[in-house]
Amino acid sequence: MTDARPLGADEATFITVVRSGDTARFALITERYRRELQVHCYRMLANYEDAQDMTQETFLRAWHKRESFEGRAALRTWLYRIATNVCLDFLDKRNDRTPVPAELPGAGSELSYLQPYPDRMLPEDPQESVVARETIELAFIVAVQHLPPRQRAVFILRDVLGWPASKAADALELTVASVTSALQRARVTMREQLPGRRLDWRSSATHELSSDERGAVRSYIDAHERNDLDGLMSLLRDDLRFAMLPDPGTVTTTAEEAVDGWLSGGLFQHGHDDWRGITTTVNRMPAAVLYLRTPDDPQYRLFAIAVLHIVDGKIAELTGFDATGKPWLDLPLTL
């Protein structure tokens, strides 16, 4: 696999390290790519913990394959190739990493293994295509999971990372014609899964939250802390899409029905009405981290993460993640 480019400083240094067998310098050189490789694995797998594991497996496999690197491709390209195939091997062995039909009619498919991705773990360079907001939001990550694994890899390499067909074909050991065909099929599926969304993944993308988004997540937390059910209801659109993972069932509901459902489930009732929250961002989206204190507990304990998609100042989609008892995303377990 070649990039038709002169040998760069990273590549020359890496070859020297390979020849010396210096594990410490090997780790130092490859570590700078960890965050972007982890995002790549996350797009492939939709699961933060799996992405961490597969990134580590990428570095282990790179060490074992180090003598195969000859500098004809950029070091980044070589590592992406390994990471992609690590993810494909993982998916080949797992039959629980594909969307399954939803139990509720019209709810589409469920992705019980979906996990949010903390923004603080994204690559720091905002110009990198790997951090474009439109390609890390939950809706995009879920849509990608509807692609067969190899088609998924082609789509991410070609349309997200912008690789030419020949480079993607080399990485996946496919023909250029096969890559072109797979990409065409993938684009059709993505249009079906993301109706009305911007589908030009390689043009300029926004990164910062809007004032509407910042205001909505603050108001969402405030409504919890004050047990203001009317205020909470006023934040929700009447065509709210709601899911609470890992429970099955994404539903479209009215604001009143959503709040009534949370009440009937025991939330905002005695023993489940003492809330605190902190704002954060995951998947370049506003999120509320909710903590609950029960009457016999002196501390507020991590309860859930609510990831919000805001449209015109209101919550159009709310994806909740049960975080009870989990040391998750390095969030504080108690407040």
TrEMBL record:
Q: Which SUPFAM superfamilies match?
A: NTF2-like, Sigma2 domain of RNA polymerase sigma factors, Sigma3 and sigma4 domains of RNA polymerase sigma factors
Coiled coil (UniProt feature)? none
Q: Which UniProt keywords apply?
A: Sigma factor, Transcription, Transcription regulation
GO BP terms: DNA-templated transcription initiation
Please list the residue ranges annotated as the RNA polymerase sigma-70 region domain.
31-95
Q: Is Transcription regulation tagged as a keyword?
A: yes
* InterPro entries per the UniProt record, alphabetical: NTF2-like_dom_sf, RNA_pol_sigma-70-like, RNA_pol_sigma-70_dom, RNA_pol_sigma-G_actinobac, RNA_pol_sigma70_r2, RNA_pol_sigma70_r4_t2, RNA_pol_sigma_r2, RNA_pol_sigma_r3/r4-like
| Pfam families in the cross-refs | Sigma70_r2, Sigma70_r4_2
RNA polymerase sigma factor 70 region 4 type domain: which residues? 140-189
Family under the similarity heading: Belongs to the sigma-70 factor family. ECF subfamily.
Spell out the subunit comment: Interacts transiently with the RNA polymerase catalytic core formed by RpoA, RpoB, RpoC and RpoZ (2 alpha, 1 beta, 1 beta' and 1 omega subunit) to form the RNA polymerase holoenzyme that can initiate transcription.
> Any idea what this protein is called?
RNA polymerase subunit sigma-70
Species source reads Amycolatopsis balhimycina DSM 5908
Higher taxonomy: Bacteria, Bacillati, Actinomycetota, Actinomycetes, Pseudonocardiales
